[in-house]
Structures are given as structure tokens and as C-alpha cells.
Amino acid sequence: MNKLFSIFTIFIFTITLQANTLIDEILNEFAIPNNEKNKEIVLNIEKSIDQRDVNEFIKIIKSSPDNVYMVKKELEKIDAPEFLLYLAMVESKFLNRATSSKKASGMWQFMPRTAKSFGLNVNAQIDERRDPFLSTDTAFKYLDFLNERFEDKWYISLMAYNCGDGCMKKVIRNNKNDDFSTILTSNKTPRETKNFIKRIIKNRIISKNMDARIALSDIKPENLVEKIKVQGGTSLASVGNSIGLSVDEMKKYNPHIKTSVAPKDQNAYYFYIPEEKLNLYALNYIGQIIRGEDTFAPSYNIHVVAKDETIESIAKKWDTTTDELIKENDLSDELEIGKKLKIPIPIIAFNDNKEYTIKKGDTLIAISNKFDVDVATLVAANDIKNLNIKAGDTIVIP
């Protein structure tokens, strides 16, 4: 009997020790002060987890393998804490097109103002909050900014990500204390923000579950992509046609493009295409340009006339002249609502001051990405006649 009691006591002690170790790990990771009140909060979060939570965690991970894999790899590159992965999970379930009632958008749920202040373009043509690669890089910069502002206290930085750094400063000032338990019990802290940090901690605890760890380690991307530079005004359809993809398929790879066309006001912009389509893109799209056929290269944007629009207002919107519009569309004084107008894409003037010596392994696509210039412009500026560029040759960068 005494032996059985001793075994049971050891078992209970081991379970308690494991639980305490887990709680200490979480407190340490999130830089939460290790005191009894904070331990109790984290312990209660851990106790609230059941198998349904684990199953939901695994379901979300498996439903967005491309973004989960990419964010994990980017976090590893910069040696950032894994729990930032669960920030994106809580914000959007890793969905690029996720949108909130407060106008936050993208996997990282940036508000328009924050996005713009950290360099993301948000306008009628593009929404870079929905670009998983660019928004992830921007989210890391924003989190780094917040964590520096709040002296490496991740639990505060994460709450500030939800309600704003000004909000958290006010909460701390009003409470005269930045302890985790104080912030979570304060009526000055928004309820949404309290739940937000608890959900991130909850997912981090779940991630230590064996089934969850297996799901995370097994995750592999389904769609590897490559970035290509295109001229302003290039349509998703024109690139898609060259590689055998429909517009809808191209939209899947380019959730940041709102109008199915690269921004007309930029000399060069970018699309993503499947990695396995890169050679086909070079052969068809770039090959046609080199041969002077321009089968896929766009010559026009399309504008659909809306109510109260005039030739003058449309010309101003597209930065062209009324004469060009009239000439290209055989227009009279009155415009018909719903009529489709062809908007000429301007020819870009070349600046031949910059030169680049081609290195071994360089391709036109790689050079265009390196210098932020579309391939069509690169080809035209250098009168390139062959896809097989030679190492040692010098080319002009427009």
C-alpha cells in the first residue's frame, strides 16, 4: 500500500513539475514577470485548452500551408520567437484576403494608416496588406518597432499590435503599472486586447502539444512562387495567357492586385507566378517581346465610363490627354455610361546613365527584379535579341 502511494505521489509530482515548467517557459518567452498572479493567469489559460482546441489549431495550420511555411521560415531567418506565428493565426487564420469590420486587411490585419506609415501601398489599384510576403516583412518591422518602444516586453508589444501603442501607453499610465496581471484585470484595457493576448498564449501552449508539433513540422508549401517585374498597366490576363493560367488563377497568386492590372502610375510593378511556370514565362512572354511580336504585352488599359464622368476627367485620372482619348476611341462630345475606353499605356523614356555587367548565372528576370525594372523595358532599352544573355556583357538599366 505504501509503495502504491509512493508511486502515485511521484506521478502527481511529475505532472505538477511538467505543468510548472510549461508555465515558466511561457512567462519567459513572452517576457511576462514571473510572479504568482501571472503564473495563475497562464495556468488558467492552459487549463482551458481541450482536444477541440488542438484539433482547430491543426486544422488552421493545414488549411494554409503556404503562408504557415513561409512565416515560419522568415521567423527562423531573423531568430524571432515562434509565438509571432500565432499572432497571424489569431488575426486572420493566415488568410490573405481576411478583412475586418474596422477595415483591417490581410494576413497581419494592418489598418490602412499603419500600413501606409510602414511603407505598404493601399489604394484603388493595389492593397499590399494582402501580399503575404511584403506584409510579413512589414509586420516584423512593426513588431520590432513596438518591442523597442516597450523595452522588449513582448506581452505589451503584442497587445499594442492589437489596440495601438498609444492605447497601451495610456493603459500603463493610468494603472501606474505594466505588470501582466494588472493590465489584464484593468478596466482601462480593451476587452478585445485582453482576449487577443490570451488567444496568442493559448495557441503557443497548444503548439507544444505533440500532435500540434507534428502538424507544424510536417507542413510543406503547396504553391512556390517567383516574383516577376512587369510594366505599369500590365494585366494579370496577359501574363496568365503566356503561362496557361486563367485570370482567376492569377488572382489567387496575386491577392494584392485589386483591378487585375499592375498600377498604371508606376513604371514597373510586380506579379507572382508559380515557380514551375518561370521557364514558360521566359519562353513565351519575354520571348515574344524580344522577337518584337508583343503578343502578350499590353498596349492599353481599359476604363469603363461611370456616371458624371467627362473626357477631361477621365484623361486627368489616367494622366493622358483628351486628344489621345478621342483619337483612340473615336469619341464624340457625349460619353455613354458603361462604355469601355482604351487608355494608351505611355512609352517610358530610358535613362541610360546606369550600366550593369552581367554575371554568371544572371537571367533577365533576376536582373529585372534586382533593379526594379520590368523585363519589357529592359529588353527595349538594350535591343536584346536573345534570352541567353552572356556573362561579361554590359547592359543599360533604364
From TrEMBL:
Under CDD domains, the record lists: LysM, MltD-like
**Statement: the UniProt record of this protein carries the keyword Lyase:** yes
Q: Which SUPFAM superfamilies does UniProt cross-reference here?
A: LysM domain, Lysozyme-like
Q: What is its EC number?
A: 4.2.2.-
Against Pfam families, the record matches this protein to: LysM, SLT
**Stretches assigned to the LysM domain:** 301-345, 354-397
Keyword terms: Lyase
Q: A GO molecular function for this record?
A: lyase activity
Domain of life, per the record?
Answer: Bacteria
| Protein name (Swiss-Prot/TrEMBL) | Membrane-bound lytic murein transglycosylase D
